[in-house]
Amino acid sequence: MNLIAGFVFCVAPRFHSRLAWSDRLRTNGGVQCVAGRFYPRDDWRQPTAAELALLLGRPAATGWDSDAMLPPTHAALFTVPPHVRAAWWAVAERSKALDAAMDGYDGFVAGLVEFLRFKRLPLPERCQFDVVASRPGQLSTRLEPTAGSPTGLDFSCACAAPGHPARRLVAIINFGDEVSHLVLLNLPRAGMARLANIDDASPSTLCADFLAARSAYPLVRVQLEPGDGFWLPEDPVVCDGDTQEKREIDIVMTIHTAG
Questions:
Q1: Which of 21, 123, 129, 162 matches a 20 to 30 Å C-alpha distance to 11?
Q2: Using one digit for the tens of pLDDT, what is the confidence trace for 88-108?
């Protein structure tokens, strides 16, 4: 199958990318289903010129003006400065474990929020910041809460407590020392339903229904260098992490809307 137009990939206003998109993006031949879970096929390749133009929404304007805001339909690359990343590692080195109370963590998050708001990224008023550590060599970094086994691709939102809205993944930042990879589907929910001719799927089953019906639809993998972040569109995105090519623990920060 061929990619169709969906989310637009861009560098966020007031940021620059160290890599060309042709070096940062990869596409593949879709998904494989294992025990009812969906994982990317391991046939990643450089996107064609046509695929790259489609993902980047070209022809596009050359850069952003100083007052530009990130559109809600765009998926955007950004980078945190070295002092922010150094502040994270200073906090981590004072702590015995990532799941314990971390001395200085609140101050670090406050500094990160200040930077993101200064750069005018569309950070929601209330957010939750979590640091996630994943083992290398995994097809998926989504884990079941009890068994700890990988769950595969799903929407970038998670259920909160009963009676509260779902938490949406806003952004992910690579705080590790190696490249990190984010795998995603470039289509919003409406585009998924149209392509797979799905009329009555509930939000909880749309992802699985689409991936089963269109298993050959290409996924997109984004390479995040140390310090790189990726801002997701407002519409929930089908995504997952991939640590197969890593040698060290994957350390990323996730930013979710607070329920």
A1: 129
A2: 988 888 776 555 567 888 999
Q: E-assigned strands of 85-204?
A: 127-134, 154-155, 157-158, 167-174, 180-184
Cis peptide, bond prior to residue 218, ω within 30 of zero: no
- The residues near 202 (Cβ < 8 Å, ≥ 6 apart) are none
Place of tokens 């691709």: 153
* Both structure tokens of 113: 């929020």
Condensed to tens digits (0 to 9), the pLDDT of residues 125-169 reads: 999 999 988 999 988 998 776 666 788 999 986 544 445 557 789
Q: Which residues 6+ apart lie within 8 Å of 179 measured at CB?
A: 223, 224, 225, 226, 245, 246
Cβ–Cβ < 8 Å for 149, 256:
no
